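Researcher: Re-running this chain for the archive, since the previous output was lost when a drive failed. Same request as before.
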Amino acid sequence: MSRRPIVLLPEALRNQIAAGEVVERPSSVVKELAENSLDAGARRVDVELSRGGLALIAVQDDGGGVPPGELALAVTRHATSKIVSTADLWRIATFGFRGEALPSIASVSLLRMTSRFPGESEARYVEVENGRLRDEGPAALAAGTRVEVRGLFQSVPARLKFLRSEATEARRCQDILMRMSLARPDAAFSLTLDGRESFRLPPGQDLAARLARFWPPAVCQGLRPFDFDLDGARARGLAGDPATAQGRGDRILCFVNGRAVQDRLLTRAARNAYQGRLLTSEFPQLALFLELPPDEVDVNVHPAKLEVRFRDEGAIFSLVRRALLQALEVMAPTAFFETPPSREERESLAAPSQRALPVEPPKFGSYREFRSSYGESPVAPFSAGRGGEAQRPADPSPPRPQSPSAASAPVSLGDSGLTYLGQVADTYLVLRTPDGLALLDQHAAHERVLFENMRSGRTRGESQPLAVGLELDLHPSEAELLEEVGADLRRLGFGFREAGAGRLALTAVPPGLDAGKAMEYFRAAVSGQSRNLAGLWTMLSCRSAIKAGDVLARDEALALLSAWLDCPERDYCPHGRPALVAFNEADLEKLFKRK
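Model: Regenerated structure tokens:
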């Protein structure tokens, strides 16, 4: 290949390269323009979008405005009023400071900026198309600044191929504006999508009130405040109840000195604080605001200012972790992860006349009764009842008692090579294996059974119609999520229809699921705890499965083992947690230091 000489790049090409770093999609434009508004002292920011921002992005504010003589300079690269020296880079107190946003946006669109500076008799505008100044002059505007961006990426159609649907791009713009509104509750914000108002937030709201507009009630009701200071740094915000955790981390919102960031250190500290309260595949809901001296954090490490670097990462990790533990300590522990009480503790808490009785009577008098109730299918049908446990059909007759010797005798499990020995800690089933010993987590095993049952038989849309539809109010965020998971809910067996503005009627439920539990699961799905069919199965199986601490009769344990042995991927629950822990002869010898 022949060598090319080193030359300066043309201005237009330099602007488009910068645009590739700063302007990834419409939401990037919304972010940069709204941040400029706040830096200008705006107390109101109004955003309009058309076709997800591809046709029009308009941001108007009531801020200080731009002097007429500086309008053309504002759309020139590396021109800014926010820093003047190298030292300023280490004490940045504004959102923007690079001077790249407006010229980068203008290089890939038609940009018109109108502004009225205080004391001026009229407003003025400047218009730039694909990086070239096209027009300027007087304009009509009462106060502040209005920036209109039209035809984004029309001059670089290759960029359009990497964008999602208009609805998805609009949601990303809404998410950006939501995060900004949380950082500045003193300011008013509004968003209009294709002529329809999406939200309008009044000034002076507190954090909980702002979040209540964007997060569903099931999540917001479990939020707890925290506020912790350590060595001149402060961590405050709201932390979600572990019981409302979800399978994605999109509700972990982190802010550093008012700037929304995506930081692995903060996320890792948050997950560490929740350790033991969540499964490894679950994420909490969190709005975290970190406040520290500007010279303790470097915000100049990412073109779009989405990442930061801390001077003392260990101190920040400790601050965030301790702050969240402060909030978690006042929350009730999640039942699934709570260590089950010992038999002695349960008996000591029971009334004197009840202490000799089991915590819960066996659900079946015999293994034959269990199989006759559930049929011959090795996978127990999905059903939920009291306490979220799998239930058999109602049986008015009391369970038949078993003799102590029959209850304690080992039972061979057919061709599996396993022998059932009993239950320990009312949580684990003890198995003898051909070469050692194994413990089966009864909750994880039952989760896998229910999950496989739903996967094999609950995707055909079979439903149990309700005689009277159950109506429920939908939060705006729930209505948006329903558009994503609605088809999967119908395949799962739910039937529903609109019942007026903001209301929905549940008309059918999955077979075997009572209406009350169906409503609970439906709410959990549209609250964001799961956004796909496999996630719904996982959530429903977890909530319906036998729990740690449930006493199982021998025949119930045998039925569970039989169903579990016929499941694929049975060594793990649907969350990926191990269901079985095995010790071969060598492992046992090591435990007893025989080797």
